[in-house]
Amino acid sequence: MYPESFKKMSSELSLNINIKEPRWDQSTFVGRAKHFFTVTDPRNILLSNEQLEHARQIVHDYRNGFVQPGVTEDELWRAKYVYDSAFHPDTGEKMILIGRMSAQVPMNMTITGCMMTFYSVKPERGSQTSIESLPPFPPVSPKLGSGAGKSWTTPAVIFWQWINQSFNAIVNYTNRSGDAPITGSQLGTAYVSATTGAVATALGLNALTKHVSPLIGRFVPFAAVAAANCINIPLMRQRELKYGIPVTDENGNRIGESANAAKQAITQVVVSRILMAAPGMAIPPFIMNSLEKKAFLKRFPWMSAPIQVGLVGFCLVFATPLCCALFPQNSSMSVSRLEPGLQAQIKENSPGLERVYFNKGL
């Protein structure tokens, strides 16, 4: 099955390296953060198919007790993280490029930066607060285009929220938990319901900008994104809520499927995603408020958009891995919280088992 150039574990690599688990201790936040800084590294999306396949081959060979000559431990771990960044942990399938966690920073910085650059709040007629006295969220130079100084039009809200929620739907599907196949009909229904519900929620919340002060209006887009995440993620992963996700014992032996585990997994992902978006949507507007008072942006107002996208990207470089690390990837729950039928099955087959484990997705 393997060529002669392959050999059994040599002195270069120890047999007890467990590459099924991350390199760092996942029981601590610091260990999880190191793991996700590697997994979400945007440079991984630049790797060619040949490089991904080479990493996959190294990982699969090692798991089968073989190693290519000359491979060091550091190279093995590098291959493992390249593999993890591109292949689904449950199905083993190569993930959609823009749905991988390594694409989160470049994709989100572009979409969020554009959403925020062309968003502004128009005060109520007769209000004493002007755009000049309190810049909108985020501040938009009057030279940026015809949209500057105006509130979002409904088509603009629909377009950007549709783009954002379509991207989120791809990410949520790509990083789902479990290995059960999803039909095209199920996927289409999930996408339409997720994006429609999320966009409708965003439209409703953005309508509030007509009735609130510009200061509060600054945070309405973030509230819209947070609320949309609460709808998009569960709907894109609704099959898990209906049929459950695989749960295992501490040794990875599959025990069954649990919808209760899916609820915990999806809740943790929703919390992580909301907090992930917070820095990029809350910090740049205040920095831009200050920068737009400076001579540089008054002289070069067209620089407002790229600067804001860059600020969002800087926030996401840190927020993405740190928020992914809030909860263990291999999450767990007490057997007593599982469905009664699964509890009975566990008591019969594994009476001493107290906790089960599952991939929460991302």
Automatic annotation (TrEMBL):
Main localisation: mitochondrion
Membrane topology classification: Multi-pass membrane protein
Residue ranges of the TM segments: 270-287, 307-327
Location(s) in or outside the cell: Mitochondrion membrane
Taxonomic superkingdom: Eukaryota
Catalytic activity: L-alanine(in) = L-alanine(out); L-cysteine(in) = L-cysteine(out); L-serine(in) = L-serine(out)
Keywords: Amino-acid transport, Membrane, Mitochondrion, One-carbon metabolism, Transmembrane, Transmembrane helix, Transport
One Pfam family recorded for the sequence: SFXNs
Functional note: Amino acid transporter importing serine, an essential substrate of the mitochondrial branch of the one-carbon pathway, into mitochondria. Mitochondrial serine is then converted to glycine and formate, which exits to the cytosol where it is used to generate the charged folates that serve as one-carbon donors. May also transport other amino acids including alanine and cysteine.
Family assignment from sequence similarity: Belongs to the sideroflexin family.
Name the record gives this protein: Sideroflexin-1
Lineage: Eukaryota, Metazoa, Chordata, Craniata, Vertebrata
